[in-house]
Amino acid sequence: MRRLSVAFVERGIITLIGLIFLGSSPAIFTLNSEIRIDLMGYFGQIVETIKLFFSNPLEITYYASGVERTLLPSMLGPYLYSLTILISALILSIIFSVLLSYIQVILPRRLSAYYKSFITVLNSAPDVLIIVLLQLLIIAIYKKTDILLFNIISLYDNPTYVLPIICLSIAPTIHLTKMVSLYINEEKNKNYILLAKGKGFSSHRVILIHILRNVLLKIVSHFRSHFVFMLSNLFVLEYIFNIYGITNFLYKYGTANSEVLTVGLILICLPTQILLGIIEWLIKLIFKGGMTVEKI
């Protein structure tokens, strides 16, 4: 436990240092008559950012419409909006990937082949196309029934959550589904599964209780990479849905202000890394090394 805590703290410190270096990257370029690389300015900005963080981060300001504003109260609204969408989409993708993989396993072989082909086709479709098609579907349903299932555009007094969460979860759900299905097929021929079937356990019990335990232990290490993948799609999602989220805020004010960019990156990455680390630790603690022959 102590070794795990030390590793967790070390990873957090390394991540923080990396984010400060990344957040100061706009200072590496200077624009006069031409674009030049300014390494001294870049390292100077890193030092200034570190000083500001250790002195009083609440004094970091930015300019909006010519008015100087304090950063953290202004950034918290867009940040919490985006974080809600990100975390919800990640949880939704995990749940649906396990559910879809389970359906694929219990289907007859012929139907399972069609099911795999559908997942492959869906995986090849661009994310933007899927988002636009879903918006058009909502509009078509509204025209036919006069019922608006979900808001398709976020407004200041009426933010949208459901459709952006669904759209952001589609791509990671497909990737996780293919991964979970692959791991399930690997586990099906192992000795502890053959022993469980020999004891008369039903296929549903073998999959849900025995196989999924080991599968979850395998895919939990991929949660971070899927979160990064979702984060890369967040900017496009916020643009299409007119969401005033954290990526929109950073694009508007962080490209010309290294402190704003650094704070935004830290707020996005550090809390989510801590949350995903806790989830990974809890899954490994609950399942205690996975299912083996001795535990059947």
Automatic annotation (TrEMBL):
Record domain ABC transmembrane type-1: where: 79-279
InterPro entries tied to this protein: MetI-like (IPR000515), MetI-like_sf (IPR035906)
Subcellular localization: Cell membrane
Gene3D superfamilies in the record: MetI-like (1.10.3720.10)
Keyword check for Transmembrane: yes
Membrane association type: Multi-pass membrane protein
Entry's family note: Belongs to the binding-protein-dependent transport system permease family.
Name the UniProt record assigns to this protein: ABC transporter permease subunit
Originating organism: Bacillus salitolerans
Lineage, broadest ranks: Bacteria, Bacillati, Bacillota, Bacilli, Bacillales
